[in-house]
């Protein structure tokens, strides 16, 4: 059965692009979340967008569950196969940047283009693609769209959804659906591109995307503020936003994270700080100067003990290196890292920081906190060992309380990591019963056999 199945897909993509060995199948059984892996029947890698439609049509006719996988960097179970009879559709072979249009400020890309590679190509043409997820060095643009990835610059520039002008994707029959346009305005029919963003592979398979580009900022200024109290750092964030300043980035790291980064990288972060803020303002030079002055005033008002301003590009890069290294440094400390992205209204950041610290004490857990403080999107990272059943039971209880408290504050289960299977059980609590039923009914109409990532977001 397995050989016959592989042969059917080999006719579409060639033998070299169908992976059915035990080692290969295990390689596509998990994502970056702490979830049980599921080994698929096989993985198929199209090398052209047209092949995607053929793969989907073949799988759907045979009743095979379909999970789409870019680089597998997602953190909520989105690329974990639904069952052992699933096929995993790999997008890495769809890696062409079709067009970068410098006159109309858009680009057309295939789903498997790596985010950082695309950003570099755009920058070489003196344009700017702002979304910058932490996994950008390996994440793919199709995956970014499917999860509505955010990043450090989300506070000022928005997230992936704000840059999707149009999509080409394939429905259950392998039909090519086109939505959106290369124009700034487009209301030709339903906003299907908006529906596909954050759909986590549950409604169809993305082949190409048309993405908005913007002019790069003319100037920027980066700084690091050091605090003896994480409450002061959180209050400074709220003060900056209340002053109507939108920095390009406004990131926080607590003392646990700072010291683990220093242990790992030795880049000169202040070990005695309870928290640091990493801030960058950009725009016209005069605006940058004005905004930086207001930011520094708020930092001092909220008891920053020191403010280090980068004098050149090299110093700015060094400042941001510490933030980029936060997740890998934390991940190396214990066998298991549970990385969350509970997000609250920005004014609630001080309350959220206190909540995380209270939960860490209550459940006797090591939680390092970093993240996008400026848009309320923190990443409390629980470091533990999943093999220790007693400890992991405390972790699960802590996560449950964290999400309940987040929702009470008017926040959301996920700012940028998605729902997948990891957070689906809490979704009704944030939304409503009718929301869940509406989503299920919509999915059933689009995917009557329930084969597109059927257990994700709301299970079919």
Helix content: 25-40%
> Strand tally, please?
16
The description of the largest β-sheet is: 7 strands, antiparallel
Overall geometric form: globular
- What topology, given as strand order, has the largest sheet? 13-10-12-11-15-16-14
Mean pLDDT: 95
Number of helices: 16
Query: What is Rg?
Result: 22 Å
Q: Structural class of the secondary structure composition?
A: alpha+beta
Could you tell me how far the N terminus lies from the C terminus, measured between alpha carbons in angstroms? 26 Å
Sequence stretches where pLDDT stays below 50 over 5 or more residues: none
Tell me the fraction of residues in β-strands, as a range: 15-25%
Describe the SSE topology:
Layout: H1 2-13, E1 18-19, H2 22-27, E2 42-44, H3 49-62, E3 66-69, E4 87-90, E5 97-101, E6 106-110, H4 115-124, H5 141-147, H6 154-157, E7 164-170, E8 176-180, H7 192-196, E9 205-212, E10 219-227, H8 230-242, E11 249-254, H9 255-265, E12 275-283, H10 285-301, E13 306-309, H11 313-324, H12 326-331, E14 336-339, H13 349-362, E15 366-372, E16 377-384, H14 389-408, H15 427-430, H16 433-446
Parallel strand pairs: 2-4, 3-4
Antiparallel strand pairs: 1-2, 5-6, 6-9, 7-8, 7-9, 10-12, 10-13, 11-12, 11-15, 14-16, 15-16
